[in-house]
Each structure stands twice: as structure tokens, then as C-alpha cells.
Amino acid sequence: MRKETILNAALLFGLLAFPLWAWVADEPFLITLTTRAIVFAIAGVGLNFALGFGGLVSLGHAAFFGLGGYVMGVLAFHAQTYTSVMDWPFVISGTKSMPIIWLVTLILSAILAVGIGALSLRTSGVYFIMITLAFAQMLFYFTISWSTYGGEDGLSIYVRNGFPGLNTMDPIQFYAICYVILLMVLAFVFALSRSSFGLALGASRQNEDRIQAVGQVPFRLYLTAFAISGAITGLSGALFADLNRFVSPTMFSWQTSGEIMVFVILGGVGRVFGPVAGAVLFIVLEHTLGGLSEFWHIYLGAILLGVVLFARGGLYGMITGREVAHE
Amino acid sequence: MSDPILDISGISKSFGALKVSNNISLDLRSGEIHALIGPNGAGKSTLIKQIAGGLPPDSGTVYFDGQDITALSTAARARLGMGRTFQISSLAQEYTVLQNAVLGALGNRGDVFRFFRPVMKDPDLLATANEALELVGLEDFKSFVTSELSHGQRRQLEVAVALTLSPKVFLMDEPMAGLGAEGSHRLMGFLGELKQKAPILLVEHDMDAVFTLADRISVLVYGEIIASGSVDEIRGNPIVRTAYLGEEAET
Fold first, then answer.
1. Would you give the DSSP letter of residue A159?
2. Contact call for B115 and A195, based on CB within 8 A
3. What ipTM, to 2 d.p.?
4. pTM of the predicted model as reported, rounded to 2 decimal places
5. How do residues A251-280 score in pLDDT, each as one tens digit?
């Protein structure tokens, strides 16, 4: 078996075993901490699809993360205040149902990604980075001034949204939901990476002349990849808001975009499971180093520097070497 | 003679005051190799870009298979059947040889927006890719990552990818560049057979290759075609000798 497959399995097993142990040992905080890692992992897997597979260095994925958060926040806020989101031209009422919130998030994030992508994908390199950043910042400042939904203070949701048949307030049950979603997202991205679309997208990242010479248009490939990527990261935002039962403009901040990118780089750019390892490492560092010093980001910075300078492939590259799929 | 498959008619292109293409007309008929030669800076690459797409001419028309394609994108021209190989090897370097060939077959079939079925298990694409790789003699290198290939092998792979498109014409920009004497020789033999599949517009610096291979030659100097004709006509043409061939004509 390939090293990468073993590592993937070990990672998934660890993410199953650790919370179960925490559950038996009655350590709900550790379950919540692992849930955070899972949710960040989903965000990272989303960004990695654009960044690693499509070569689209987006510094604005907080736009989708935050959008997911606000979809959850707004729908749940209206449900808990018994008001409607809008009355005209048709009535949209709030909801406390997770599946509906996810569906709305996926659709809206994909639409937002198509909008942002349609403009920003006409540029490349540093301009692309700046335009994606600018879009996220626009949403950040918009939500700060959006007083209906708490403005700068954000929105608190008193009871976590519901999922049919489960008690979502129980940490281990909410964890199970997030874990299954992570599995589904990973399976989806894995399938994509081996599909016709994945082959063409990867070729486009490596050489745009080549993909055009075989009759395909890079822009369409990028835009589709960006929409998929945004939808996945948006979904993680909705889960993150539900985890905290709170949403605020911070989810749209450029620091959030940066952190999502850190998961990807720490774990291994372009590896399907890379961001999962990256997010877990990030949470472990945050928890251990964060206990030592308030300024734990300094150590994170040093580690990140080490990864970028000496281990380009991140954790995955370090452990599995420069293994490439040859099937 | 048959109708030309590729017919370039009165193309002009200027960058500021510099006329890089000056009323160029050129055609390509089935079964032939039409070589385009000219000194550095004559505007060969600019002309190829206007034919393959990516650079619109200021005036003039490119007809391909009876259709005006002047306004079409590079991708659209490729889909119509223009198989192009690049001066600087343009392959997906991280992919294997087989993946590059499958990519060509996939691009040609056109259904890239498929998200679930593993592409490297598609029997039709594999068949097309394998056939092309065998034709250029890369069948033993299928699982090699492209960046591990020698310079000559990359050239062969470029041709193989172009073949997977089952093109109606080949546009080859200096395919011999950087190949050793042996490599050039082998490729020449191959191109001589390939022209039966589809005619080749060949941009080439290697004069020996051009005089051996070409059925017709056009000479481009300072953006203008100064002569066009059979190998013997070009060899004996006094304008060409002074303007371009120089020493090579004396040897």
C-alpha cells in the first residue's frame, strides 16, 4: 500500500478514536476541540481544491467561510425571533434545520464564488491574490455595518440548530455530524481529483498553453473549481457557526483567510487529505503552545517558515516523500 | 491540386511601428509538408500564433477547412483539428506520459466536465492515448513523469498529444530545436510518414531538415514572404540566397 493511503487511514482513525476516548473519559472540551479541527479541515479541503489542484492562490476564502456562518446565523436568528427573512416578493422564513441551512449555504457560496471568480480569474498571480482579498474585506466591512444582524458584535444563536434524529447539543453527536461531512467532502474531492475534470484542471495549473492546445479553455475549468472550492469552504463556515452558536464579522476577516491557507500549507498543498493533517496540527499547536504563551502565533510562524523553506509538501510531503499518483 | 486545408490570406500585424506580419498569404494542402523558414526575428512565431490562435491579426483572414477561423479562440481552433507542437515544450510536467496523452484524447472528446468517473480508467481515452504513444515510440515510457523525460522524448510526446486530437493539420514550431543529430534524424523520418495522416506546417531552423523533408518552402524575412516554392526553386532563388541563406547556400 502507498504511504499516503496509510497516512490517510491513520488520520481518519485517529479523528474517530480520540473523540470517542474523550467521550468515555468525559472530556467534552476535547471533543469540541476536535470538532473545531474537523470544521477547519473541511475549510482547508475546500481551499486546497482551488489552491492545490487549480493553482488559484485565493486569499479571500474567508468570504465563503463567513457567508456560511451568516447563512446559519441569519436563518437561525429569524427562526428564534419568529420573524421572516423577507416578505416580498415571496416569504422566506428562518429555519433551525441543519440540512436546509447547509443546502442554502452550498448554493449561495457557489454563486458567490462564481461571481468573485468571474472577475478575479481574469487576473493571475499577485493581482488574483489581491482581488480575492478585496472581496472578502468588502464583506467583512459590510457585516460590521449591518446592524440588523448585530454589526460588529455579531449574532448569538441560543440553541444549536437541529438535525433529524440527533441531539446536536450533545458534543459527540455534533462531532459525528461534522466527521461524516468531512468524510463526504474528502470522498468528493478524491473522486474529483481522479476525474476528467481533475485531469484537465491539473493540466491547466501546470501549463495553460497545453490545455488550450488540446481544445479546452482554462477560465471555465478555473471558475468551476473555484465554485466547488467556495461551496465546500462555505459549508465549513455554517458548521463553525453552529459549533460556536455565534457568528461575527471575524469570520470574514483576512486573518481567517490566512488561517485556512495555513492549514493547507502545513498539511501539504495539492494532497486531498493534506489540509486535514494541517488543521489537526494547527489545533494541537494552538492548544499546547497557546497554553504556554498568549503569543503562540510566533511559534506557529516559525514552524510555518520551516515548512515553507524545508518541507514544501507540508506534513504529507515530509512523511510520504514526493510520491505522485501513477495509476 | 486539392483545395487547401489551411489558407492564410493577406494577414498583417503591427506592434506599434513594427510590421511583424506584412500581407502574408500561405496555404497548406493535404499530404504535404510546407516549411516556413526565416532568420531570427522574421516573425515566424508571431505568424504561428495568428494561425493557432492567441494573437488576432490586424487584417487578413485565416481559413481552416473552408471556414473563417480568424475570430476563434485557441481552444476552438484546436477542437476543429489544429494539432500544435510548441517551440518550448509545453506539457503538463508533473503528469506521466500516459496522463499527458490521455489529456489530449480527453480534450478532443470534449467532455472535461465530468466529475466522478476515474479518467485514467476510460477505455476509449486509453486506446487513443496508447495508439498515439506507440506511433511516436514512447510506449515503454508511459509511466514516466514528463519532467523525467529527455528533451527528445518530450518532443515525441508533444507530437503524440497532437496525434490524440486526430488533427486535420499539424502546426510544428521548431520541432528539431535542441535535438541531437541522431534525434533530428529519427524525427525527420517520422514526420515524413506523419504528413500522410495530416499535412504539416513546419517552422524550422535546421536547413538540412527543411530541404530534405519539405514539399514546399516559404521564406519569411522582416514579416514578409519573400519567396515561396519547391525546394529546388528556393535553393536556386537569388533573392533568398542573399537575404537569408547566405553561407548555407554555398556549402
1. S
2. yes
3. 0.90
4. 0.93
5. 999 999 999 999 999 999 999 999 999 999
